[in-house]
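FIELD: query
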Amino acid sequence: MNRVTVAETAGFCFGVDRAVKLAYEAAEKYDNVYTLGPIIHNPEVVKDLERRGVKAVDSLEGLTAADTVIIRSHGVGPEVYEKLLEIGARVVDATCPFVKKIHNIVSERSKAGDLILIAGDPKHPEVEGIVGYADSEHYVFEDADGMLKLLRKNCEKFKKSVAILSQTTYNTTKWENCVSLASSFPGVSVYNTVCTATMKRQTEAKALSKKSDVMIIVGGCNSSNTKKLYEICSKSAESYLIETAEDLKGIDFSHARSVGISAGASTPAYIIKEVQKTMTEILTKEEEFNFEEAIEQTFKKIYTGKRVSGVVTAVNPTEVIVDIGTKHTGYIPQSELSSDPNAKPSDVVSVGDEIDVIVTKINDVEGIVYLSKKQVDAQKGYDDVKKAADEGTTVTGVVTNVIKGGVIVVVSGMRVFVPASQTGVRADASLDSLLKQTVSLKIIELNEQRKRAVGSIRKVAAEERAAKRAAFFENAVIGSTVEGEVKSITDYGVFVDVGGVDGLVRKADLTWARIKHPSEVVSVGDKIEVTIKDIDHESGKVSLVYKKQADNPWDIFRNNYELGQVVDAKIVSITGFGAFAQIIPGIDGLIHISQIADQRVNNVADFLSVGDVVKAKITECDFEKKRVSLSIRALLPAAEDSAEEAEAPVEEAAPVEEDKAEPESAE
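FIELD: result
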């Protein structure tokens, strides 16, 4: 096997990776960001987030509605959510989905009256959160012996139903033992809530430890799952628990022929990689020193402006050290490393990378040479940009700066200026939305003498939109369903981008329900499915329908109601000749004034009010005219009509305004 082997599943699990990404996204979007406890049990990640303005707090004390609070992957109890709601703070919920599943199980079984037994560390934040969902009697146990004591007391003596589960990072060997013993007790339900990633990580680490002389476990000293990995591996091999590559110093590895590396779920990939490289360097130091090669390097000539190749030997916060094969120690200051002023050295290069650099200054007295990687990248970037300008092709870069009049995009190491008018951002909007975004652009101007370029993001977007528009009109078929994004809302309808084309959904085609404004149905930015109603190829106009035929209230009414049926109807409006009552959304029936009571009605409001729910009989259905008549009187006990009523002429319903009339077709 290799002298240094890294376990396949070492490092971030799904839940931790998701939580960390949400934390970094929150740091970019919001001010006053806090995590309730460290986002993960890894000091390096916590420190980096602190530098970006994300602070860890132990309680909600002092937080306000202006703050953003991140719930870490361990999860919290319901009382924390209630407190956050009371404070009014923005909440970013990064609880691991597997932990959420445990919360749901505990809540459900607790409401059913089960005794809840939880395998884990009672002081672990995940367990503390789980306990918050247990409304019934519950206990936390650490091992099989603790579980047996609880089961014997409650199952044998009190005959209680029991639900047993564990924290996601519980030791898999211990859990298998618990499951085996619990099966002999009646009324016990066991839920396997150990995370599959945890199980796989522990299994792989155990197997690797049996094939290695030494095991290195990388992770935070406070991390529960990291400690469990160390315990498992210690049984098979000499094991060390470290947080960073620096912790390898002082350990004697002279006897080790093979070293295995595993890491807890809270350990970033870059730390694992640093440990792997450092461990490899330690094991390969035994190689013989080549005297002739050293002499040759001592006399190797360099000069200012020379382009040389080198190997990165160290990466520091402010500089990078490079071995260029001479007696000099090569330094690349952070300012000469990348055209992106926000890039950290560790983002650009790693120990062991082979890179090309240009010599900028030599100090033979001190044996130092200063180098620039940025100049090499800029030359290469200029060649790429010039080629793109000549051929009219698209290039890709990252927006690194927002300056007066536009933004700077770094393309292959070269800075390209994009004027505000060419960014595609509205004149009244901030260009900050583009910062750190990867964008595509066309080179519209190139000064070869000064090696400066001007680009256009808008031109690429316009070409892409034109291509999508052409493709839409070529392939679109009336009656087909397409997905689009709501771009704008007016009083008369909604404009939806269906791929380079903004189609119109008129108000009548938006919903079967009666609405005052389209914003009651959709919002700008919503992704919706629409049906193509009509296409005008000459004008380029497209008509769309959002409402679904399956939701047609008249079809629903036809299939579920019949003449003579008694319904519960809600009074929605009152007129001089009667009242309209909603049978189902979209279907209002008329209760004529003569059908309200078994006596003469002069004022409808004396008998009915808007919002009343009444029982009425369907006395007439005209699907062609979209009209339904209802009668309350038909359900009342028969009574002799007064002579006055018998002689009274039947009034015709007068025409009414559209919003008070019987419902017309919603087409």
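FIELD: remark
Confidence is low (pLDDT under 50) at residues 286-299, 639-667.
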